[in-house]
């Protein structure tokens, strides 16, 4: 039976590559669009090792509307899109706001124009818990008010959500969208063929942890220990990337089956918050590796604490996470070891 084609922008990236695996395992044919500005082409080899096939790949910048149009025309019969492609580092966005607005908002506008032209009206959008800003209450639900974003990155996600709601409100534009607000993805595929592969200095905690444990970096810096949290370090909701990827499959199926509202929003997390120090301790327990770390100054744009209420995703999508924090961190360590062996 012919597989249903789903376009995956940023499909060679960290979350995107794991979603490609889950899409294929669920019977879809993922079609990757990626310009490899924040990913490496070796990811494609990892995907082929896992799946046993080379899925279609187009080296295209999502801001290039003409190139996107050529992909839609060549592939034909695309049924839906998962839009991952975006710059994603909070701290970097504070230093480079223009680049973040141009890339993150511009790529969505280009994609939506081409989708409309080709009659593709199902979109899963990669959003973020940063849209909540600094919340007044925890955990955050989908009804928690979105406040002024704490970074340009968060602001781009708020803008993109607003754009999608405005378009979906026009009867002549039959776009159906699911906004997945991610919390903090960590870990790697159990095969250790794909995982988080930052270019240059990592922007996220766990690659810093694994690279420090591997001796690539001398010391882990924990950015701030004076936040209003039990141990003074930031609290986040750390979700295994494979669990997060599976949420996209449920969302795609919901859109293609015509279920739900025109625009729906779901938090995707574990429902638990862990501090940076708790992550360090959990990593040491899970791997037996002792981490050398120091306390540094807080980073601009960082929210003190945020974690998800996942009641809605469980009730309406039937989605729950299955991996523990220790399991996710152990998988990240296996991935780091696999990377070191390939050098």
TrEMBL record:
Cofactor: NAD(+)
Keywords: Carbohydrate metabolism, Isomerase, NAD
Top-rank lineage group of the source organism: Bacteria
Documented EC number(s): 5.1.3.2
GO biological process, alphabetically ordered: galactose metabolic process
Ranges where the NAD(P)-binding domain occurs: 7-329
Catalytic activities: UDP-alpha-D-glucose = UDP-alpha-D-galactose
Gene3D superfamilies hit by this protein: NAD(P)-binding Rossmann-like Domain, UDP-galactose 4-epimerase, domain 1
CDD domains per the UniProt record, alphabetical: UDP_G4E_1_SDR_e
Enzyme class (EC, first level): isomerase
Gene Ontology molecular function, alphabetical: UDP-glucose 4-epimerase activity
Pathway(s) the chain acts in: Carbohydrate metabolism; galactose metabolism
GO cellular component annotations of the record: cytosol
Family: Belongs to the NAD(P)-dependent epimerase/dehydratase family.
Quaternary assembly: Homodimer.
Matches recorded under PANTHER family: UDP-GLUCOSE 4-EPIMERASE (PTHR43725:SF47)
Protein name: UDP-glucose 4-epimerase
Organism, as annotated: Hymenobacter taeanensis
